[in-house]
């Protein structure tokens, strides 16, 4: 181990005594996700946790050759139909999703020593839904959606600043939604709820979509 590398064993922490109780389990994953999200959002809103965004999620995609890539995006809606986010559809993730719609999501909710892992397929949201969300964005974010050729190589920051100024002048009033920008929704095939527990004997509850199961979901407990 090099002199500059910290001793990683010193970073080990014990987890709090929390559990996923049987009484918490729901017939489908969405109600349990909603409860957990409300709890972690309450923590995120505290001043001492202002660094943390409850709706931040790691999106992993893969191209047609199964080469994966991951990045953090922001959840903008969830419900029985799935998990929704918005992006430039010409970006690397947009191109990969077009080639291979199967993705995973990970919500790393560190303050509560929890994570939620989702696997499913992506489909675009209706144009009207994308239009509505785009109209709700701040003007700067709207212009940024036009200015950024997301994931493409650019010469320097000044190029981006010029592009922003150009579109600011082009759209002095209402900024329309670019055709290459819109919403994507992940319809889950499985959702795993993970709760850290002492001695690395964590709780793992897996919901698997199953048409033959009651309410369309099979619920399993996994070994840690």
TrEMBL record:
Binding of substrate, residues: 76, 133, 137, 200-202
Positions contributing to FMN binding: 71-76, 86-87, 92-93, 115, 150-151, 194, 204
Cofactor(s) of this protein: FMN
Pyridoxine 5'-phosphate oxidase dimerisation C-terminal domain mapped to chain residues: 181-224
Keyword annotations of the record: Flavoprotein, FMN, Oxidoreductase, Pyridoxine biosynthesis
Domain Pyridoxamine 5'-phosphate oxidase N-terminal: 53-167
Pathway(s) it belongs to: Cofactor metabolism; pyridoxal 5'-phosphate salvage; pyridoxal 5'-phosphate from pyridoxamine 5'-phosphate: step 1/1; Cofactor metabolism; pyridoxal 5'-phosphate salvage; pyridoxal 5'-phosphate from pyridoxine 5'-phosphate: step 1/1
Molecular function GO terms recorded: FMN binding; pyridoxamine phosphate oxidase activity
Documented EC number(s): 1.4.3.5
Tagged with keyword Zinc: no
Cofactor binding comment, as recorded: Binds 1 FMN per subunit.
Top-level EC class: oxidoreductase
Reaction(s) catalysed by this chain's protein: pyridoxamine 5'-phosphate + O2 + H2O = pyridoxal 5'-phosphate + H2O2 + NH4(+); pyridoxine 5'-phosphate + O2 = pyridoxal 5'-phosphate + H2O2
Keyword Lipid metabolism tagged: no
One GO-annotated biological process of the protein: pyridoxine biosynthetic process
Top-level taxonomic group: Bacteria
Task of the protein: Catalyzes the oxidation of either pyridoxine 5'-phosphate (PNP) or pyridoxamine 5'-phosphate (PMP) into pyridoxal 5'-phosphate (PLP).
Family: Belongs to the pyridoxamine 5'-phosphate oxidase family.
NCBIfam families reported for this sequence: pdxH, PRK05679.1
Subunit structure: Homodimer.
Identification of the protein by name: Pyridoxine/pyridoxamine 5'-phosphate oxidase
Lineage: Bacteria, Bacillati, Actinomycetota, Actinomycetes, Catenulisporales
């Amino acid at each position: 181990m090099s002199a500059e590398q910290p001793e990683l064993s010193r970073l080990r922490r014990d987890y709090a005594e929390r559990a996923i109780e049987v009484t918490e389990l729901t017939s489908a994953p969405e109600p349990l996700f909603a409860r957990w999200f409300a709890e972690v959002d309450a923590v995120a809103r505290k001043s001492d946790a202002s660094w943390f965004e409850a709706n931040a999620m790691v999106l992993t995609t893969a191209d047609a050759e199964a080469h994966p890539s991951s990045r953090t995006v922001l959840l903008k809606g969830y419900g029985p139909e799935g998990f929704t986010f918005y992006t430039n559809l010409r970006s690397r993730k947009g191109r990969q999703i077009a080639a291979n719609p199967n993705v995973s999501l990970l919500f790393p909710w560190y303050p509560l020593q929890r994570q939620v892992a989702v696997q499913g397929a992506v489909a675009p949201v209706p144009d009207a839904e994308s239009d509505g969300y785009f109209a709700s964005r701040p003007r700067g974010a709207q212009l940024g959606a036009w200015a950024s050729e997301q994931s493409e190589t650019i010469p320097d920051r000044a190029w981006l600043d010029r592009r922003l100024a150009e579109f600011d002048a082009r759209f002095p009033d209402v900024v329309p939604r670019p055709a290459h920008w819109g919403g994507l929704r992940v319809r889950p095939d499985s959702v795993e709820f993970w709760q850290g527990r002492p001695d690395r004997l964590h709780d793992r509850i897996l919901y698997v979509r199953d048409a033959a199961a009651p309410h369309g979901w099979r619920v399993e407990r996994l070994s840690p």
